Amino acid sequence: MAKKLLVVCMAAIMAVAALVAGCGGDQKAASDNKVLKVGTNADFAPFEFQDENGKEYQGFDMDLIRAIGEEMGYKVEISNIQFDGLIPAIQAGNIDVAITGMTINEERKQNVLFSDPYYKSGLSIIVAKDNNDIKTFQDLKGKKVAVQIGTTSAAEVNKIGGVEVKEFNSSADTFMELRAKGVDAVVNDRPVNDYYILKSGETNVKALPELLTSEDYGIAFAKNN
Ligand code: ARG
Asked: Which end of the chain, C or N, has fewer beta carbons within 10 A?
């Protein structure tokens, strides 16, 4: 009797195991053609940038989203979109997610959902090495400052008041403007400012230690997703 029960039990276990294995297999096959459409503004090293040939997308965010895609069984397709066009692209359904060093804030939460925070950032200033006027954010009053359009830098520098804010399409453009002496300072996310100083070989600029904000980056996606 006991032996009979054992045989029945083993058969049941084997049947369940076969079912589980079968399901897993089917899921894998179905996922092979699933695509995650990712938008980024690929001019924000070290989070997203393109290699020298302007082809391969690289950086912290790119590695992260590829790892997430792999985990989900999705093929990751990345498109380069202007920063202030990313939330509209999510809302229009042209992309599934935006990963682009995007700060989670209340204003954006009206339009998109965010993942859990994945990186803690904040804003810092870069000035010419021989600039002794600007030491803090308050010192930007009455000065010309370059920021990227649609970013928290643009919003925060405008809040200081009395700053002549010049808005550019990319952080690379803000650095170029500083080099060309079109502005007195640049405000960007600190890791981006620090990476620029480290990698550009630019020796005539310095990053100031003050951090204006504490910001969390999140991955954005549609409210109905
Ligand atoms: N963290 C800032 C923001 O959310 C700047 C992000 C800019 N990102 C970019 N890929 N250009 O506004």
From this structure: N
What is the pTM for the complete model shown? 0.85
Taking only the tens place, the pLDDT of each residue in 116-171 is 999 999 999 999 999 999 999 999 999 999 999 999 999 999 999 999 999 999 99
Q: Over the stretch 51-78, which tens digit does the pLDDT of each residue have?
A: 877 789 999 999 999 999 999 999 999 9
> For residue 55, what are its two tokens?
């082809």
Probe target for ligand 1 pocket from 100, 109, 115, with the most ligand atoms within 8 Å of CB: 100
Q: Work out which ligand 1 atom sits closest to the CA atom of 155.
A: 12
pLDDT, residue 54, reads 73
User: Alpha-carbon distance 44 to 195, whole Å?
Assistant: 10
Q: Please name the residue whose Cα sits nearest to atom 12 of ligand 1.
A: 151
CA distance linking residue 206 with residue 194, whole number of Å:
9
Cα 55 to middle of ligand 1, angstroms: 21
